[in-house]
């Protein structure tokens, strides 16, 4: 039987490949977020939780074909710090915590420190409060997260992998911002041929408040990560 | 006539002898055969015949005699026989009567007897029929049993029953029709069983191929979990080792991993294989099935080995490798448990072929990769695959070798990436000392890399001795070390520390040092920036120790062992050489700057009528610059470098003044101009002495002071201002006071020296003092003698 590959990529020219890493405590739902985002393009027969795992999805931003390469630790963070190879070449990062577990939010600072210690300085970082569907069990007020994001110059969204709330938005925001950064660098390089093109772009702080979107009518049954 | 009677006499005499012998033989009842045979063989049968006839005649005579004697007895006997005959006839009549009587009496009994015999015949036939039917019933019963077994898919008892029918009953079935039907059905049923079993086996083939990926993934997942637990243990030991400084144990820790969690066994069902194999064995077709199994599994493997072309290998490699791993785990189980279905040599051959294919795929894919982390991702999965299948007895040497071959490629990609990062960091650095305002910043940029000797947290704001590129470079190098260790771990190498060190050296020499040299020679940095760069290089050179310890720690070598090791990084010496390069660049920059001010020498009035009261303008400018230079360098540069830079500047100033006096720009100069130079030098010498003391350089015990750098111009000035310049020609005085002066240079300069008496109005002046006259006279002597030398 032939494997159902991603037909969308056949014969399609890829303009950019952006590596984005998912980091955060264990069991905050990183893998579910990844599965939700990449579900239309990439279906694994079975879930392999071995080492670092990644999935890809090809998007269209400003008429450009952008391939998002999303890397997931797949539980590796439970044993030791994620290695620097995981961060190498990453242009974006999704820092995930669980809104029902205060500890996972308290650890965000540590994850941020590791990110800044290993990744590129200009990496685009999105703070994601997952499991927003469990509002009755909330342990992290949204104001706390907003304040932290403003202070640390991060993007912020609350998401629900279960109900597909803001997952697409979060990834698209990061990828679009990365695309803009890359485009600006190219523009600067074009405008000033003599310069090395290393202009330090001012990165504005954008707080994206989760909209009151109705959940998708086709509610997929997605079990919570253990 | 006399002759004939003699012949008869002789013959008769001989006959008499033979006859007696034969008669005796006959009387005794002996066998006459030998005698007769001998007689015929000797050719004399006539004599024997005569003797025999003679004996016959004698016997006949005896018989007649005997008959005559017994005549009377004979006649009596005949009479007696005739009497017996009469009695017999009488008895015969009596018997005949009895017989008739008996016949009449038993007529009824005879009819009954006939009936009885008929019934015996019927009984026999019925018995035979019953026997036949019993056999048929047994056969039919077995046939029904066989049918039931087949209906329930219990093929082995069905086959047993079939065999029983064939061997035990088929020959003995009395009914021909039944026998024929059964004989025809047996091979058909066997064929049916074979097809059924094959169909079931084929279903299993499809199923096991789908399952193989899961089996492989589960096995690789187990290997991954074991590895992660190992990492956790090592991390804990690293922490414990860091805390306990005074440990007597210098040996590497042996990890005693107690397997508290039982590994969940890989569950997959081989029953259809066992059944099919056994059934084919019972059917006498074991070889056929063995061949069928091997070929079909080989075809499946060949399909598994085709990698996806529509999908990048980075995305398809995990399912691909898991599929292959699962395939071979199944084969190993079949080999162990299926009782000769597979040969060990077959599995090994298949594995060698498969691993050869995998290695060639990996080599091709690795050669096309452009990102180090992708190569590392695949390498990790390949080593997990190796660990998983090695547990089942498969040799993974080729896998290890392909990773070894790709090691340089991986590190090349890493080095390329690091080069970009380091170039970026160095280019974007402002080369100003970092001002750290928070403890977090200090921790991230200083403590993390042990860039200060004291680990205590200072007061904030804190000014570092290095600029921001130093911690950034340290971060890049640390990532390189970690990525290098990540690739080399779980490979073939047992001790990866030396390899990591070699690659680290390459990074620091070929990438970092080259980038630093580029910055040095790029002429894009100003003086203070170049000084900061020098300071940075000094710190980076010291950081090599930290890199080594970090490498050792990641490679599992205890800190104390690494600290005691004497072999360091080659890069350290190279960076020190670059330090000298940057010092030279600093000297060049300084001298270049000094030249900008020394240009003002051209504005000096070399034929001044009066001695100046203050230093010339050029010297004021130079002193201001040098003041700034020293105060900045003092904060950043080590004393050795500071000494080199300032000494170089001083020497350069001295050389500049000498060069100016030697050049055509100055046609002539007067004693007043020399007096001006003297004032300049005194000012500069005062500066030099002050800085030499205040910077602490005097404590170093340097033989050459800053003032000593000005010795040439000082001696020249002293000579020109001397009342007896001709003393230069005195060897003792020259050695002591004018040792740095060159004959040729001095000759050129002295030619330009003009007293005011030689001016246009010299002859009219009457102000010559006796002292001036004496000096002029002495100078003329010196000029003349120097000319003679040249």
UniProtKB/TrEMBL annotation, chain A:
GO terms for cellular component: endosome; Golgi apparatus. It is found in: Endomembrane system. GO terms for molecular function: GTP binding; GTPase activity. It holds the Pfam family Ras. InterPro entries: P-loop_NTPase, Rab_GTPases_membrane_traffic, Small_GTP-bd, Small_GTPase. PANTHER family: DRAB11-RELATED (PTHR47979). This is Ras-related protein RABA4c.
Automatic annotation (TrEMBL), chain B:
One of its GO terms (biological process) is pollen tube growth. It is found in: Cytoplasm, Cytosol. GO terms for cellular component: cytosol; exocyst. Residues 228-248 have a biased composition (Basic and acidic residues). Residues 51-219 form the Exocyst complex component EXOC6/Sec15 N-terminal domain. Keywords: Cytoplasm, Exocytosis, Transport. Residues 398-752 form the Exocyst complex subunit EXOC6/Sec15 C-terminal domain. Its main location: cytoplasm. It comes from the Eukaryota. InterPro entries: EXOC6/Sec15, EXOC6/Sec15_C, EXOC6/Sec15_C_dom1, EXOC6_Sec15_N, EXOC6PINT-1/Sec15/Tip20_C_dom2. The keyword Glycosyltransferase does not apply. Residues 219-248 are annotated as: Disordered. Belongs to the SEC15 family. Component of the exocyst complex involved in the docking of exocytic vesicles with fusion sites on the plasma membrane during regulated or polarized secretion. Involved in polarized cell growth and organ morphogenesis. During cytokinesis, involved in cell plate initiation, cell plate maturation and formation of new primary cell wall. This is Exocyst complex component. It comes from Zea mays. The lineage of its organism: Eukaryota, Viridiplantae, Streptophyta, Embryophyta, Tracheophyta.
């Amino acid at each position: 039987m032939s494997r159902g590959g991603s037909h969308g990529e056949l014969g399609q020219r890829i303009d950019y490949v952006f590596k984005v890493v998912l980091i955060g405590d264990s069991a905050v739902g990183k893998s579910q977020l990844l599965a939700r985002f990449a579900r239309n393009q990439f279906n694994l027969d079975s879930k392999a939780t071995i080492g670092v795992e990644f999935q890809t999805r090809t998007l269209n931003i400003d008429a450009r074909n952008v391939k998002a390469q999303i890397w997931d630790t797949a539980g590796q963070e439970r044993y030791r710090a994620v290695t620097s190879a995981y961060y190498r070449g990453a242009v974006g990062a999704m820092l995930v915590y669980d809104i029902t577990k205060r500890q996972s939010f308290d650890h965000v600072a540590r994850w941020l420190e590791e990110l800044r210690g290993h990744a590129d300085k200009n990496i685009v970082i999105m703070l994601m409060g997952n499991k927003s569907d469990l509002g009755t069990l909330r342990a992290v007020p949204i104001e706390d997260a907003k304040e932290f994001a403003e202070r640390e110059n991060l993007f912020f969204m609350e998401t629900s992998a279960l109900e597909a709330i803001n997952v697409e938005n979060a990834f698209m925001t990061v990828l679009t911002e990365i695309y803009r950064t890359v485009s600006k660098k190219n523009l600067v390089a074009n405008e000033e041929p003599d310069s090395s093109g290393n202009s330090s772009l001012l990165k504005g702080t954008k707080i994206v408040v989760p909209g009151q979107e109705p959940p998708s009518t086709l509610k997929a049954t997605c079990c919570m990560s253990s | 006539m006399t002759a004939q009677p003699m012949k008869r006499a002789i013959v008769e005499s001989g006959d008499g002898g033979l006859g007696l012998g034969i008669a005796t033989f006959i009387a005794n009842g002996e066998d006459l055969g030998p005698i007769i045979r001998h007689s015929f063989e000797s050719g004399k049968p006539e004599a024997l015949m005569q003797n025999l006839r003679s004996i016959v005649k004698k016997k006949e005579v005896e018989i007649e005699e005997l008959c005559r004697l017994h005549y009377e007895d004979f006649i009596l006997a005949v009479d007696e026989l005739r009497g017996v005959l009469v009695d017999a006839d009488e008895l015969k009549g009596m018997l005949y009567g009895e017989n008739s009587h008996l016949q009449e009496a038993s007529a009824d009994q005879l009819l009954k007897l006939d009936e009885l015999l008929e019934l015996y015949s019927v009984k026999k036939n019925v018995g035979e029929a019953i026997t036949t039917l019993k056999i048929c019933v047994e056969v039919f019963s077995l046939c029904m049993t066989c049918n039931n077994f087949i209906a329930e898919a219990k093929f082995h008892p069905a086959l047993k029953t079939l065999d029983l029918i064939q061997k035990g009953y088929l020959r003995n079935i009395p009914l021909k029709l039944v026998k024929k039907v059964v004989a025809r059905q047996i091979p058909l049923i066997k064929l049916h069983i074979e097809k059924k079993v094959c169909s079931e086996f084929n279903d299993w083939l499809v199923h096991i191929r789908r399952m193989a990926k899961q089996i492989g993934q589960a096995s690789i997942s187990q290997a991954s979990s074991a590895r992660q637990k190992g990492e956790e243990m090592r991390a804990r030991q690293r922490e414990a080792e860091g805390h306990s400084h005074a440990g007597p144990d210098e040996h590497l820790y042996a990890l005693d991993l107690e397997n508290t969690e039982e590994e969940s066994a890989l569950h997959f069902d081989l029953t259809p294989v066992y059944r099919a194999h056994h059934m084919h064995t019972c059917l006498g077709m074991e070889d056929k099935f063995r061949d069928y199994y091997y070929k079909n599994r080989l075809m499946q493997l060949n399909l598994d080995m085709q990698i996806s072309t529509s999908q990048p290998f980075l995305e398809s490699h995990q399912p691909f490798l898991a599929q292959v791993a699962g395939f071979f785990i199944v084969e190993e189980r079949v080999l162990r448990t299926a009782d000769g279905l597979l040969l060990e040599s077959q599995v090994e051959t298949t594995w060698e072929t498969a691993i050869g294919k995998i290695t060639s795929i990996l080599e091709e894919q690795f050669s096309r990769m452009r990102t180090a982390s992708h190569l590392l991702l695949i390498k990790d999965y390949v080593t997990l695959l190796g660990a998983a299948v090695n547990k089942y007895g498969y040799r993974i040497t080729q896998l290890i070798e392909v990773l070894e071959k790709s090691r340089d490629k991986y590190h090349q990609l890493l080095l390329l990436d690091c080069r970009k990062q380091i170039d970026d960091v160095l280019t974007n650095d402002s080369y100003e000392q970092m001002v750290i305002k928070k403890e977090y910043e200090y921790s991230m940029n200083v403590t993390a890399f042990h860039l200060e000797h004291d680990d205590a947290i200072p007061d904030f704001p804190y000014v570092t001795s290095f600029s921001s590129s130093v911690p950034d470079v340290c971060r890049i190098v640390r990532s390189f070390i970690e990525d290098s260790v990540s690739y080399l771990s779980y490979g073939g190498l047992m001790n990866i520390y030396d390899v990591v060190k070699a690659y680290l050296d390459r990074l620091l020499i070929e990438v970092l040092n080259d980038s630093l040299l580029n910055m040095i020679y790029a002429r894009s940095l100003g003086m203070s920036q170049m000084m900061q760069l020098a300071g940075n290089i000094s710190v980076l050179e010291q950081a090599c120790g930290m890199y080594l310890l970090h490498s050792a720690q990641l490679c599992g070598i205890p800190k104390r062992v690494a600290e005691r090791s004497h072999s360091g990084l080659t890069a350290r010496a190279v960076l020190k050489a670059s330090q000298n390069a940057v010092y030279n660049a600093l000297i060049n920059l300084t001298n270049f700057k000094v030249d900008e001010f020394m240009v003002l020498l051209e504005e000096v009035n070399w034929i001044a009528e009066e001695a100046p009261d203050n230093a010339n303008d050029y010297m004021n400018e130079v002193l201001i610059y040098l003041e700034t230079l020293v105060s900045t360098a003092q904060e950043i540069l080590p004393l050795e470098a500071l000494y080199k830079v300032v000494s170089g500047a001083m020497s350069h100033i001295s050389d500049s003044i000498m060069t100016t006096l030697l050049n055509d720009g100055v046609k002539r100069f007067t004693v007043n101009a020399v007096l001006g130079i003297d004032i300049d030098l005194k000012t500069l010498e005062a500066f030099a002495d002050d800085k030499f003391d205040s910077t602490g350089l005097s404590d170093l015990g340097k033989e050459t002071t800053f003032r000593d750098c000005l010795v040439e111009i000082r001696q020249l000035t002293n000579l020109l201002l001397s009342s007896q310049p001709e003393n230069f020609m005195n060897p003792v005085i020259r050695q002591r006071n004018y040792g740095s002066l060159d004959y040729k240079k001095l000759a050129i300069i002295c030619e330009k020296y003009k007293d005011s008496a030689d001016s246009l109005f010299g002859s009219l002046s009457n102000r010559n003092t006796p002292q001036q006259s004496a000096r002029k006279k002495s100078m003329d002597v010196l000029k003349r003698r120097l000319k003679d030398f040249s």
